[in-house]
Amino acid sequence: MNLSFRWYGEQDPVRLADIRQIPGVRGIVTSLHHKAPGELWRRDEIAAVRDSVERAGLTLTVIESVPVHEDIKMGLATRDRYIEAYQDTLRNLAAEQIHTVCYNFMPLFDWLRTSLEHPLPDGSTTLAYDDAGVDEQALLSGALRLPAWNLDAEAEALIRRFRFYQALSAEALWEHLDYFVQAVMPVAKACGIKMAIHPDDPPWPVLGIPRIVVDQANLLRLLSLYDDPCHGLCFCSGSLGSRADNDLPGMVRELGRDGRIHFVHLRNVRRTGPHSFYESGHRSADGSIDMHAVMQALFEVGFTGPVRPDHGRMVWGETGNPGYGLFDRALGATYLGGLWEAISKSSPPGRA
User: Fold this and answer.
1) Domain-embedded: residue 351
2) Residue 178's domain spans which residues?
3) Domains held by the chain: number
């Protein structure tokens, strides 16, 4: 397991020097956050980010994300020029020795929460979601924005896209995803890049907008679109675990046995209803997910790739990007590292 940490670049309140002090963390997950969706990433820009990470004594393990332009998700006639830029970006990443790319195909709003400061009994605050609390007006006005969102539309265009997606069927979205996969995966394969799609978060339709990367059946359907190891998954325990009907250890064993899990996000959530949850501490006891069982399954399928603690609570008075403070994610990283060591040392020789 390559224990890594999300970093939002030089503007991130969490510094690379801070991350380097977390026991066991040697990898960085980042992106070119100044680039608009659909824009070509130049080699010199990629190299600059990689070099800044390496000067801090760390390694750039994953680009998360190279965002997919909305015209591609919408299936518009303009999508081909954005796909061409995406292909060239992958070639440039590979030329700079970066070989794992995370992306998602969530229409318009990317990952979504309805509270950024949900209070917990211990005095910490966390991210939370409740279907009943989704504020359409806040989303469409720009009043609500989350880290790593790539919305590039003015208000009027945003509303048009919103109405378009509400009228779009899930099968049509599958067709648009398939078009993207067929165009991009041969390039990824040729240049040695592992593509890891992130599940939809939350994994159900929101405000009438379809979401399709939500459960084991759909993940298997996705992988079947291009049956090659380059086309794989980012397994996110928090996203998939917010649905009670997703058997996470079973999914890891089914999806990971052929090496199709390329990247892992590990966090816990406490489900509070069919379509509501809050993000707890990483420990199994804190949420609804058995983190030991998930990591045991990862060990059994021989996973050795990058893993990062995902969203953390805000603890000890820390402020910063919602879900992306230093302290609780660092606690999560050390907990996950301890679990992995215990699983590794307690397993029979030769089993990995």
Assistant:
1) no
2) 2-346
3) 1
Residue in 287, 224, 228 with CA at minimum distance from that of residue 259: 228
Residue with tokens 């399709």: 212
Mean pLDDT for 266-295 is 97
Q: Torsions phi, psi of 29, nearest 5?
A: -110, 120
Structure-block tokens of residue 76: 């518009």
Average confidence (pLDDT) over 289-295:
98
**What average pLDDT score do residues 290-315 get?**
97
pLDDT at 134: 87
b/e string for 180-200 if b means 16 or more Cβ within 10 A? bbebbbebbbebebbbbbbbb
Q: What tokens were used for 179? A: 């078009």
Q: Does some domain include residue 352? A: no
178 a catalytic residue: no
Is 311 in the active site? yes
Q: Any catalytic annotation for residue 278?
A: no
CATH number for the domain spanning 121: value is: 3.20.20.150
The CA distance from 137 to 142, in Å, is 8
69 flagged as catalytic: no
Is 176 annotated as catalytic?
no
Is position 180 within any domain?
yes
Torsion on CA atoms 121, 248, 205, 324, rounded to nearest 10: 50
Confidence of residue 140 (pLDDT cuts 50, 70, 90): confident
Q: Please pick, among 69, 176, 198, 275, the residue that the annotation labels catalytic.
A: 198
> Distance (Å, rounded) from C-alpha 90 to C-alpha 205?
30
Q: What is the pLDDT of residues 29-40, one digit of tens each?
A: 999 999 999 999
Tell me, yes or no, whether 134 lies in a domain.
yes
Three-state DSSP class for residue 55: helix
Note whether 295 and 340 are within 8 A (CB): yes
